[in-house]
Amino acid sequence: MQRYKQKRSISEPAASYVVWLARFALLLGICAAISSNAIAQDQFPIQEILLVHFAHTDFGYTDQPSVVRELHQHYVDIALDAAWATRLKPKGDRFCWTIESQYTFADWWKNTTPARRNEFVQMFHAGQLDVSAFALDNTPYMNSAEWKLMTHWIPDDVWKLLGIKSGMQDDVNGVPRAGAISLLDHGINRLWTGINIDLGGAPQKTPSAFWWKMPDQRSLFVWLGVPYSEGYHFFVPHNWRRGPLPKAGDPLYRPPAPEEIFKTDSASLQSEHERLMQQLQQYVAGGYHYPVFILPFTDQWRIDNDPPYPALVDFVAAWNHAGLKPSIRLATVSEALERMEKIAGPESPEYSGEFPDWWANGTMSAPQAVSASRIAKNNLAEAASSVFGPPTASFLKDVDGMNRDLVLFDEHTFGSGSSVAFPYSLDTLGQFAEKSLLAYGPMGKSQWLLGKRARTAFERKGEGLHAINATPTPWSGWARFNVSALRDEDVSVIDAATGACSPIDFANGLKSFTTPLNAGEITSENASMVFADNLPKQTASFWVESLRGNSSRHFQLSQKPCTEKPSAQSNTPKIEVDEKGWPVAITWPGMLTSLIAPGFGDLVTMNVSGFAPRAKIHEISDMTDSSKRQAARAEFIKESPASESAAAIRSENSHSLIYTQTLSEPSLGWVTRKLEIWRDEPRVRFEIKLYRLSSELPQVIFASFPLPAGDAAPKTSNAGVPFIPYDDQLPGSCRDYFAVDGWVHYASPQGHWLWVSRDAPLITFGNTNVLARRTDKPENANRIFATLFNNFWYTNFVANSTGVMDYQFDLVWKKDFPSSISEADLSSTLSSDPLLLINPKMPTDPLYLKWLFWP
After folding, report:
1. Is the pLDDT of residue 192 over 80?
2. I want to staple 629 with a disulfide (CB 3.0 to 4.6 A). Which of 61, 249, 623, 658 is the partner?
3. Residue 855: pLDDT band by 50, 70, 90 thresholds?
4. Nearest one of 137, 165, 133, 127 to 50, comparing CA atoms
5. Average pLDDT over residues 194-210
6. How would you classify the pairing of strands 835-839 and 475-482?
7. Which of 69, 140, 138 lies closest to 106, judged by CA?
8. In angstroms, rounded to a whole number, what is the distance separating the alpha carbons of residues 568 and 654?
9. Which long-range contacts (C-beta less than 8 Å, at least 24 apart) are formed by 25-33?
10. What is the average per-residue pLDDT within 642-647?
11. Which band of pLDDT confidence, cut at 50, 70 and 90, is reported for residue 569?
12. Under a CB-based contact definition with an 8 Å cutoff, are residues 46 and 292 in contact?
């Protein structure tokens, strides 16, 4: 080995003798240093360290996302060369490397040569290189389509060629059960986690293992490992890195050179061994008794998004040649998991339930982008509806591309390491610009794709207006559109099948590029006052009744008014209001209780008092004494409910009643809320729009939805997998809040409540639960709090989302919930509106159809 060679010329036998003497002296020195512990080491349970080397992949954080993707492609080449160079060494001394996020491997595979691919495949099958089954470390906001893509990021033939064996989720504090199911569906039954303890932590002590049982009785072996960044510190008590997050392009910083970390001289090995034994003793004292201990290692340049460290093989060889115990062996994640499953699997406990993530709150620091991503997902789901006919190959290709962007948007990194400390730096702005485009881009593209599907599918279905329900269940409500879509002075629509006439209702609204002439032509929300947004007859709407799922209805536009005026529904609900006129109870005939409870639609903000508030957040979060934590929360976390600044305005029509009201809260420029109540069924739609004033200080904003559902347990889902919070989740996992698909179902003797959120997928129950670290179920779980905004994080997420934030929530009550309809299907219909399309009298130019609209 290079470090033992002498500069002067000596014979080969003499050189061998010198090497032998050096190693013997090293061994004697270390043995003398630990002689007092010789008996204890003979009885020490840990006999072998598996050193698992990889790069923790953040889509950003250290560098711009586009730079990160380039870096990781180079890292695969470094790892491949290091593995190839050591392939003839004894097993355990060969360089090993695991690719944590499959999307980086996919980038490399696409851009490399056939020869390099062949070398990689050889090293993979030799056990020196490994690839995770997951595309990336995820947040829990992906839908079922994204989770399918997570384990199909690379082509199936490449997957089969390699034979991928394991999934990885590092840093993040949870994994949706849908992710475990996607692994099992792909024939993978092992999951590695290296959970970060910062503002979260693992559900059980680490390191340990458990079997994660799925609803279909299949089980996944889960390793709760040492935090991914901590392996190096088992040998050295301090970071080698400086910065802590220098840019890859900053030449003042660099990855460590050989012998700068994991040094191999006698004194260093002795010090590293002493440090390791001190660390391991703590785990043994805590009950760890397996003969093998896994240590992850990420490079010390920045720790995240760092390259392989090829000199690691020299350290392992020096350690083992010195006879140090425990011995060390380099291994991939798959090999380490396979070993631990054999060793720890037979005695590991079995758990079932969802695995909620402590870090899910960070995503709601960017609520506008989150809303854009959810609109994109809904558009893609509707574009796949059978109402438009079978999908084309080009359509499926476009959907795949948009879903890949949405998966990357739902990756766990939302900003740079200094995104909160320096929210307006070019680095922070640049990182989030790249990140947010992964939501806004699919939002625009999916709308265009949905429009193309509608235009081509309905081109030959006749002149007039078509209302299209591209969701699974029947839809009723007001179909709304901008009056500028009308070419004539139309005032009604005629059902082409039945001849029934429905009047078009007109309301005030925006007229673009029209200067307001007086204050009455602008609303309180129109701060820019560029265009008039309160002009008469700018929005149009007509009532659509029971439009079947995945179907359409054809209407003719008419300039003649309906001869018969629709009569008000006879079953108008009974509505009770508070002193300002806002509804607090709504009851339809046949209901034994109200649809809502007092406080429905209220808004509350949570703020942190005191100096350096995010430091206080950390302090409270880290408290292990629950009574001290509750006292600190009461002292420093201040709840501020918005007040009703004006009386609610009530309006009504033949099919619904509408209450509109403004609220007041000091941190918000304005707040307006609107509750639309269906006359003929127990259903409401609640919309709230707010303007958050600029502030980098930590804040959480909630909307409150108390429901008179009694003691019924809330049922919800994540990525299509239903669960009951608190009851159906892993022990020790997050109970303060839950990322959900967007619906909650309460089934009680009084009936069924289905609550639906279009834009805000992070919810909690009973109380706001900010920094509560709940270990129990709240008494009043029938009160839902939807998170509208949360910037409590000190890094990695967005510090100061500001401006207009718009949210929609729907609620329906049914005496009996039909078994033929799923909550997911009904919720998608409730939160949607029909797609409206107007065909002209003359057919569309075929060149437009061929080159512009064909999906």
Report:
1. yes
2. 623
3. confident
4. 127
5. 96
6. unpaired
7. 69
8. 5
9. 25/266, 26/266, 26/269, 26/322, 27/322, 27/323, 29/266, 29/270, 30/266, 30/269, 30/270, 30/273, 30/322, 30/323, 30/324, 31/323, 33/270, 33/274
10. 96
11. low
12. yes
Strands 532-547 and 475-482: antiparallel
pLDDT tens figures, 737-758: 999 999 999 999 999 999 999 9
Buried b (16+ CB within 10 A) or exposed e, 278-292: ebbeebbeeebebeb
Closest CA to 676 of 747, 553, 573, 777: 573
Q: What is the pLDDT of residue 567?
A: 59
Q: Where are the beta strands (DSSP E) in 332-433?
A: 350-352
Beta strand pairing status for 551-558 and 492-495? Answer: antiparallel
Give the dihedral sign, CA 267/270/274/280.
Answer: positive
Phi, psi of 780 (to 5 degrees): -105, 65
The pair of three-digit structure tokens given for residue 625, joined into one six-digit string: 């004494």
* DSSP 3-state of 454: helix
Q: Which of 524, 445, 477 is nearest to 689 (CA)?
A: 524
Q: Are 719 and 176 in contact (CB under 8 A)?
A: yes
The two beta strands, 97-99 and 129-131, are parallel
CA angle 694, 698, 703 (to 5 degrees): 85
In one-letter notation, the amino acid at residue 345 is G
Longest alpha-carbon distance in the chain: 113
Mean pLDDT (the chain) is: 93
Strand order in the sheet with 464-469: 501-503, 492-495, 551-558, 464-469, 835-839
Amino acid type, 519:
A
pLDDT in tens, 592-616: 999 999 999 999 999 999 999 999 9
Parallel, antiparallel, or unpaired: how do β-strands 501-503 and 492-495 relate?
A: antiparallel
Residue with the two structure tokens 């002075």: 489
End-to-end CA distance of the chain: 62
Concatenate the DSSP letters of all residues of 8-32 into one string. S---HHHHHHHHHHHHHHHHHHHHH
Q: Which residue has the tokens 């099919």?
A: 655
Residues 714-736 as b or e (16 or more Cβ within 10 Å = b):
bbbbbbbbbbbbbebbbeebbbb
Unique residue bearing structure tokens 């060679």: 5
Inform me whether the pLDDT recorded for 24 exceeds 80.
no
The pLDDT value given to residue 572: 85
pTM of the model: 0.93
Q: Are 174 and 199 a contacting pair, CB within 8 Å?
A: no
Is the alpha carbon torsion for 341, 347, 352, 354 positive or negative?
Answer: negative
pLDDT at position 244 over 90: no
Contact of 763 with 757, CB cutoff 8 Å: yes
pLDDT surpassing 70 at residue 515: yes
Instruction: Quote the percentage of the chain above a pLDDT of 70.
Output: 94
- 111-132 per-residue burial string, b: 16 or more CB within 10 A, e: under 16: ebeeebeebbeebbeebbbbbb
Distances in Å between the Cα of 37 and the Cα atoms of 7, 26, 41 are 38, 18, 6
Instruction: Judge whether residue 7 has pLDDT over 70.
Output: no
Separation CA 125–CA 119 (nearest Å): 10
CA angle 176, 182, 183 (to 5 degrees): 100
Strand order in the sheet with 505-511: 475-482, 532-547, 505-511
* pLDDT at res. 93: 87
CB atoms within 10 A of CB 562: 16
750, 178 contact by CB (below 8 A): no
Q: Tell me the pLDDT tens digit for each residue of 146-164.
A: 999 999 999 999 999 999 9
